[in-house]
Amino acid sequence: MDTGSETLPELEPILNYLNSQANKLYQEGYFLKLNDLDINGRSFQDRQWVDCFAQLIGTVLSLWDSAALDAAGPDEDVAPTFINLADASIKMVYRPFFLSL
């Protein structure tokens, strides 16, 4: 977020705060994700739990398949899946440590 010269001085602290929150690492770790809906909102034919590694930075949740990370070499990159939580629909599954995205 640019806080250039045309920004009102009164708004600069607010814009700086929003910018710092958008780049903050809130949480990262491994968890199980239920493949319930695809990116178009349709149900998966084969609903299954998938072991994932995730990072929540700002409002963006980045997910990596744990099996793909394990199979990749130390110099290989694994492309993540991105979910913008500001645009997402999240349903908590009422079991400890389970989240349906």
Short summary of the structure?
The chain is α+β, with helices and mostly antiparallel strands and 101 residues long. Helix content is 17%, strand content 33%. The protein is extended.
Report on this model:
With 101 residues, the protein is of the alpha+beta class. It has a single domain (26-100), classed as Pleckstrin-homology domain (PH domain)/Phosphotyrosine-binding domain (PTB) (PH-domain like). The chain has two helices and six strands. It has helices spanning 12-22, 66-71; strands at 25-34, 49-57, 60-65, 81-84, 91-92, 99-100. A six-stranded mixed beta sheet has the order 4-3-2-1-6-5. Strand 5 and strand 6 (99-100) form a beta hairpin. The longest helix is centred in the N-terminal third of the chain and has 11 residues, at 12-22. It is extended. The model has no long low-confidence stretch (mean pLDDT 83).
